[in-house]
């Protein structure tokens, strides 16, 4: 039984609409196999979301406890003579994130029937998800909003130019601490998004950001945006556009949502983002070759382990490429 995020969300909306009955929760099976299920619940009286998985043995968590997650309370519960692993959301305002977690569990458990194996998969998923429910997180600042918008706009443009969505999402590394924002086989790209009036200077935050240690080409892509107060081209708007574009495949849809969460984007914060609207001014693409101004770990003296710096693009402006040339090079690598 394969359940995508859209179906999980619809089931949650159905649960919320149900009138309280004789039980303390409304419960739908949303995924799993005939012998091991994933259930979505709405707990009364507050209608808080919960996930139950099982049935399992009641002592299954003793030898390998579940990861401790802020905002989620885990327990083994009995129901009809069987035992289930229950995870209740305790963090206000994180329901949409919790539903993505439910969809991920459905995806990873769809072919697994044995409780011991299923429990191992659940542990792996939760270990990866521990940071998504951090209670001290904040909404994205203005610079991070602009950076994310620029990367999402580039994804949309590459998608519209024929780059397959799965390859795009696998290559998008801007949220996970990689040296470059996109890492395709044979091509890496660092994206610099700006709303500045003067765009001939670019800040580089690391000695490794423009360091090409792979076997392919490295590019710096400058996404120049105009910022407006009000308007439709907001961060939530482009997120919605990409969700629609990727909705045909549940794997792509789920991967996109997890990338957004890793970046720090939450739907619950959209009120903070709706006042900033962007329009694209230009896109410049520079190949980071031996002639491109840069400072890397190979260029500094021993003992210097990190540095940030500013480069001028004035001397390489004539060598800049348009997006179509970058797409052609990217397509060559993908087709090899």
Number of helices, counting only DSSP H or I runs of 4 residues or more: 9
Regions with pLDDT < 50 over 5+ consecutive residues?
none
Biggest sheet: strands side by side, in what order?
Answer: 1-2-3-5-4
Average of per-residue pLDDT values? 91
Q: How many E strands? A: 11
> Into which percent range does the helicity of residues fall?
25-40%
Any key phrases for this structure?
336 residues; 33% helix; five-stranded antiparallel beta sheet; alpha+beta; 2 domains
Description of the molecule:
With 336 residues, the protein is α+β, with helices and mostly antiparallel strands. The protein has two domains: 5-133, no CATH class; 142-335, no CATH class. Helix content is 33%, strand content 26%. Strand 6 and strand 7 form a beta hairpin.
Give a brief outline of the structure.
The protein is 33% helix and 26% strand. It has 336 residues and is an alpha+beta fold.
Topology:
Blueprint: H1 5-17, E1 25-33, E2 36-43, E3 48-56, H2 60-63, E4 72-79, E5 82-89, H3 95-109, H4 115-129, H5 142-160, H6 165-171, E6 182-184, E7 187-194, E8 201-204, E9 217-229, H7 235-245, H8 250-263, E10 276-287, E11 309-312, H9 323-335
Parallel strand pairs: 7-9
Antiparallel strand pairs: 1-2, 2-3, 3-5, 4-5, 6-7, 8-11, 9-10
